[in-house]
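Thread: "does anyone have the structure for this chain?"

Original post by V.I.:
We have the sequence but no experimental structure in hand. Need at least a predicted one for the grant figures.
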Amino acid sequence: MSTASTRLPEGRYGRPSDERADRKLKIAGSVLGVALLALIGYFAYHYVAQNEISGQVIAFKASDDAVKVHLEVRKDAGASGYCTLRSQSADGAEVGRADFRFSGPDTRIDRVVTLRTTAEGTTAELVGCHTG
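Reply from O.Q.:
Generated one for you, tokens below.
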């Protein structure tokens, strides 16, 4: 009885995998992966750490020429800045936009502000909050 060989016939199926090339690809992939994670971490840190003011629209009430907006702002103590609000009409046209400034030692400001509009506004949107 003979035993079957598990070796492939030489020269028939090409060269076996080059281990050095595989190792170089693994190293290059690892370096690029670490660099990508570092870049994502850098941007995430600056987005979270540098954002000293954040706001949220709690509620709003529209009338013919204004929108009253209940705005909650969270900020670092002593930081000053502004939040930009806008309102749109039923057809999507912008009918009002204004900046509202905040300063002082408080870290949470809960205020109702009035956004004047050129026509009846149906929305109140917080565009963003910035320091300065």
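V.I.: this helps a lot. The first strand starts at residue 53 and ends at 62.
O.Q.: and The chain has a mean pLDDT of 86.
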